[in-house]
Amino acid sequence: MLDGAWWPRSRDLEAELPSLLAVLDPLWGRITRVTVNPVHWPVVPHKVPVAGHVVKVGWFLAEQDPHELLLLSYRVGRWNLLVVPPQTTPVSAAWLMAAASDPLGMATASRLMEEAALLRTVAETDRAVEAVWDSEGGHMVRDPASRPRIPAATAAERMFAVAGVTPVGRTGVPADAPGPPPN
User: What CA–CA distance (Å, rounded) separates 85 from 114?
Assistant: First the structure.
């Protein structure tokens, strides 16, 4: 189970860990050890200085989820954090952090990353479909051959339409007047 999430600014573990640990030390007690899966971290330092002490950093390739950071503290014990990739959009990061912090959540870090990717794909597909819908005037595409033919307007009808005038029939009554012309 995950206890929360962390969204670092980069994949530089030596630069990112001190600020995270400096915030968590007063809340959880002194963090003594951190482990990661090196798949997403180009360099894993052995030790990181944090607020007057040194935190040991280790890694496990097969035993640890590649999207997870494990923190150990004397007071709190063990905390598993989802690592939100630095390049993640704010919307996806917010969803991932909320999902990782859900006390009823049972998903692993990798499973949450898969769900976020699926949600992004669905959202992108929805946006593409909506763009097509909008570009077609908000109606479904039909075969151009099956569209109803619109009768061509005469030059006089077009002129009246442009001028906003109702054409008058031969009897002097507007063409769209109800009933037969009076006698």
Answer: 13
